[in-house]
Amino acid sequence: MSRDLRVADNGAWSLGSGRSASEVGQPVRLTFPTWAIAGFLAWLLLGPLVLTTESGPSAAWAIPTGHPGHVGAVAIAPGGRRIATAGTDGGVVLWEVGRGVERELPGQPWDAMNCLGFSPDGTLLAAGSRDATVGLWDVASGRKRASLRGHTHPVLCVAFSPDGTRLATGSGDESIRLWDLTTGEATAVLLGHHHAVCRIGFAPDGRTLASGCVGGQVKLWDVTGQEARERPGRRAHGTVIQTLAFSPDGSTLASCGGSEGIQLWEVATGRHRSTLDTDQRFMQALAFSTDGRTLTAVSRLEGIVQRWEVATGRGQVLLRMPWNVASAAFSPDGRLLVAGGDDAIARVWELGPTVPGRS
């Protein structure tokens, strides 16, 4: 099934100006898989998406994914031209931003994917599954390269090392596993959390790993040697860790859990640095700007995208979405945001370089 739709040639709109990132529109043929017909019809009923921002209306490129229910996981590849979505149907779909479906990676309903992640070069996609395995796909061909086995509970988070040679996975079995992607073997099992590990991420130099669990603890691990070890220090939130992000220079870790604001930690010492105040709860994703001066977050329940100046803590609301955000991810440079909705639609925005004002 296909339909012509006039969109900007890069499929994204700038929040900074409220205008299309490209003024030249062109007809683009969006082709959807057979099971996406219901989602496509829902999109037709929704009509044009016009959102309210602090500086005026701005539009989003909408993808009717066809996943039943909500879009449970999303990821955006380096460069921002390709995204991946997953739902409770067990399938993963690759989309080319501004054009439509690129490839289906089929699955089974009992094998629903909880999390997705692209490798730094964009050639691999990792998907953590409800059946406690991790699937690795070749993005260009759609061929499944490996199924990593070792966890005993659903895999809740995945993260590639910056050099793309290792994969870290966190699970409901309270463990973290490090995988050698050349051999497909687990090289380390990190134990220390007493609840399900739900967030994970590598520092830019690949030497430090951050993890967060349902119990609210944030841990830092030294993963440079043959045996990874936990770094000392107590970093905790009162509720489940929603998201983590390292600054580009690796000196600061941002974490968020519930309604306590965004906490900033010194990576070298583990000490608390400051708190970015927010009225929003349950952040789905965080991203530093490439210069590390600003931090952007998107909340689940309120659908609000907010940006802070790290040095001063001043913040500004960039976008208010009239729906809940079931999943979200930023591009590596923080320029693009993809948000999966409870309505089975994924939406993509280009975030302009707005300078925060007073909140």
General description of the model:
This protein has one helix at 37-46, and strands at 2-8, 25-31, 50-53, 56-59, 61-64, 73-76, 82-86, 92-96, 100-105, 113-118, 124-129, 134-138, 144-148, 155-160, 166-171, 175-180, 185-191, 197-202, 208-213, 217-222, 229-230, 235-236, 243-246, 252-256, 262-266, 272-276, 283-288, 294-299, 304-309, 315-320, 325-330, 336-341, 345-350. The chain has 359 residues and is an all-beta fold. It has a single domain, classed as Methylamine Dehydrogenase, Chain H. It is globular.
Structure class: mainly beta
CATH fold-level assignment: Methylamine Dehydrogenase, Chain H
User: Can you tell me the overall shape?
Assistant: globular
Gyration radius over CA: 19 Å
- The tally of strands reads 33
**What is the end-to-end distance?**
45 Å
Q: Share of helix among residues? A: under 10%
Q: Compute the number of structural domains.
A: 1
| Mean pLDDT across every amino acid position | 80
Percent range for β-strand residues:
over 45%
CATH-level-4 superfamily name: YVTN repeat-like/Quinoprotein amine dehydrogenase
CATH architecture annotation name: 7 Propeller
Helix count? 1
Q: Biggest sheet, in brief?
A: 5 strands, antiparallel
Name the assembly state.
single chain
